Amino acid sequence: MSSREIDVLVLGGAGVDTIVYVPELPLPFADSYMIRPGIETRAGQSGDFVALGVHALGLRTHHLDMIGDDHEGELVRALHRDHGIPLTDVLQPGGTKRAVNLVDPQGRRLSLYDESRSGEEDRLPEETVKTLAAASCHAHVVITYPCSFTLPALREAGLTLSTDLHNWDGVNPYHEPFAYAADIVFVSTTALADPECTMRQIVERGRAEVVVATAGADGAYLLADDEVTHIPAVTPPGPVVDSNGAGDAFASGFLLGRLAGEPPLRCGLYGAVAGAYACTVPSTRADAISRYELLTRVQELDSKGVLVSGGGA
């Protein structure tokens, strides 16, 4: 580990979600629904969850993003304060990013993102980015606007970079600057017609050493050293109540292994354990697996001879 003061600098992805539990997805049209256990608004979007995840795993963490001077912004600041995660927030004139998450009884999620909060002129201050980058070992860049503008400064600072393209279809040009600038790329298989083809495209066109395509209950696929390997899903430690944040947790666990010098397959196991834990946490709560819990679970899986298998995505 480097002597720099920050292990993981997280850029972007701060915001607030309103959680609505629905009887099923897709939700059939009706005049009204009676909702239980209720509707709740809480801080926590992708960047918040990655910051929370790596912090809970014992990595020195710092989060940078644009946040509004509004009630939602105070919720985000309070989340970081309560968990002891350093946050540098830049004023977002359009207000704090927010979304509505519909969650069904199986824990599946449909997210509705409010795009009106960002403006074309929004930027993270270059000097702030450079100062934090100089103190960091690694940066995880969320694909929220305007994080793509920070990529050149982060590369110039000599950091390794990771990003999560979420449900990229392999075509949308918005995702390309992130996909081709990062050393570690996470992407969901949800919208990919040919996951392995997209994974190899990311390596060929960019600088990625590792690409991970997460596939929910089917586990994940790892492309490293020109070989695709299947990472089986790990049995969650409790009932599955919500998939929200599972991908962010996977990325957090993977980064713990990567920054500790573990081989990619081992990092994938760390990610699978963290992601499985996240599925047991209700949407209304912000929580992450601890370093002790993760390493203990990995040790248990080692003793059972959990295997990863070769094969395409």
TrEMBL record:
User: MF terms per GO, please?
Assistant: kinase activity
Record Pfam families: PfkB
Judging by the UniProt lineage, the source's domain of life is Bacteria
Q: Which CDD domains match?
A: adenosine_kinase (cd01168)
Q: Where is the Carbohydrate kinase PfkB domain?
A: 10-287
Q: Which UniProt keywords apply?
A: Kinase, Transferase
InterPro entries (alphabetical): Carboh/pur_kinase_PfkB_CS (IPR002173), PfkB_dom (IPR011611), Ribokinase-like (IPR029056)
Name of protein: Adenosine kinase
Species of provenance: Streptomyces dengpaensis
